Amino acid sequence: LQECILSGIMSVNGKKVLHMDRNSYYGGESASITPLEDLYKRFNLPGAPPESMGRGRDWNVDLIPKFLMANGQLVKMLLYTEVTRYLDFKVIEGSFVYKGGKIYKVPSTEAEALASSLMGLFEKRRFRKFLVYVANFDENDSRTFEGVDPKKTTMRDVYKKFDLGQDVIDFTGHALALYRTDDYLDQPCQETINRIKLYSESLARYGKSPYLYPLYGLGELPQGFARLSAIYGGTYMLNKPIEEIVIENGKVVGVKSEGEVARCKQLICDPSYVSDRVTKVGQVIRVICILSHPIKNTNDANSCQIIIPQNQVNRKSDIYVCMISSAHNVAAQGKYIAIASTTVETAEPEKEIKPALDLLEPIEQKFVSISDLFAPTDLGTESQIFISRTYDATTHFETTCDDIKDIYKRMMGSEFDFEEMKRKKNDIYGEEEQQ
């Protein structure tokens, strides 16, 4: 996805773009696999999917589960480039948080907050005060700080200021600010306040939850940006094996494929193409589960997110569950896909993810993957090779968008500007040419 978005942006910016992919489908790691038979093959499961799973081509299964924040950066990128015209989105029906072995809905309205059994009555009042404070907080107006220095005061101190208890801190940090660990508590509060604002503003747009999901799966996203690139003259080649990245005097000059060299000035790729220029920074376990029932205690939602804060299960990092269903054209009628993921912390990753799988029982079929996370050791200043990071365990695209902005800045030498992505109004859109 990062590469597809960047090829779209670079094409709109008037660069000549050639996009090669060794796979036969768009999106690399962030593809959606269809038909279901291909998913069985990919995970080396013997035999064909049982008849009860319905038609294979009714399935589009994401390899990496993520939702879009309704007010987040990826939605902005889609709107500015008008890639929205190729996609349809549905709002996710609810976000849930795990506490003491049970799951509770993360309140999405004031009425829900008052009725929620996540906190006691006095706690609710204090929490409401805190939310009002966050909503009014403006980093450019010190009158809104109430004695807090956004660049110095830690988040731990802000929680203390509002006298919030441990349970509320847990769900605020992990279900609203969406941190994976508790490291944020001792960092300056500005970032956390902005994250809670993003959550609240995203929630305000559609009301049920702050998350959106594209019909037919996340694989539609890279395809949309690949189309954008093509409209602006970019060339796309699937099934194209990469034999060698050609380097002269420490700088990339081309890519060799099937005996030919395509020459270039800059190269963007994911870590799998340049294993000598990346370093392993961790692992993520993901378990794709096929269910014939909605998840218990979610009010039969046809889509939801569940966050298991690390404190609740004695871990350092959170466990996430994303669930979607036939309502999103990604599964056969009456079927649900739930994907659990977390950052690996021990030598037994499958044990680590068990609390999430327990919430999903009975599970009809599961597909387990453990992926290494890579980060570039070469930032591209000399080599002009720009390497994206592997997808982390978070359940939204904010970190992915930060990576895109970072690569853009390293390539272009200037800050990423959403305005740069706007389709030029006097351009001929590919769609209108045929008329």
From TrEMBL:
SUPFAM superfamilies: FAD/NAD(P)-binding domain. Pfam families: GDI (PF00996). One of its GO terms (molecular function) is GTPase activator activity. Gene3D superfamilies: FAD/NAD(P)-binding domain, Guanine Nucleotide Dissociation Inhibitor, domain 1, Guanine Nucleotide Dissociation Inhibitor, domain 2. InterPro entries: FAD/NAD-bd_sf, GDP_dissociation_inhibitor, RabGDI. Interacts with RHOH. Interacts with the GDP-bound inactive forms of RAB3A, RAB3B, RAB3C, RAB5A, RAB5B, RAB5C, RAB8A, RAB8B, RAB10, RAB12, RAB35, and RAB43; binds RAB3D to a lesser extent. Interacts with DZIP1; this interaction negatively regulates the interaction of GDI2 with GDP-bound RAB8A. Transmembrane segments: none annotated. Coiled coil: none annotated. The lineage of its organism: Eukaryota, Metazoa, Chordata, Craniata, Vertebrata. Its main location: cytoplasm. One of its GO terms (biological process) is protein transport. It comes from Rhabdornis inornatus. Keywords: Acetylation, Cytoplasm, Golgi apparatus, GTPase activation, Membrane, Phosphoprotein. PANTHER family: RAB GDP DISSOCIATION INHIBITOR BETA, RAB GDP-DISSOCIATION INHIBITOR. Belongs to the Rab GDI family. One of its GO terms (cellular component) is membrane. This is Rab GDP dissociation inhibitor. Signal peptide: none annotated. The keyword Transferase does not apply. GDP-dissociation inhibitor preventing the GDP to GTP exchange of most Rab proteins. By keeping these small GTPases in their inactive GDP-bound form regulates intracellular membrane trafficking. Negatively regulates protein transport to the cilium and ciliogenesis through the inhibition of RAB8A. Regulates the GDP/GTP exchange reaction of most RAB proteins by inhibiting the dissociation of GDP from them, and the subsequent binding of GTP. It is a peripheral membrane protein. It is found in: Cytoplasm; Golgi apparatus, trans-Golgi network; Membrane.
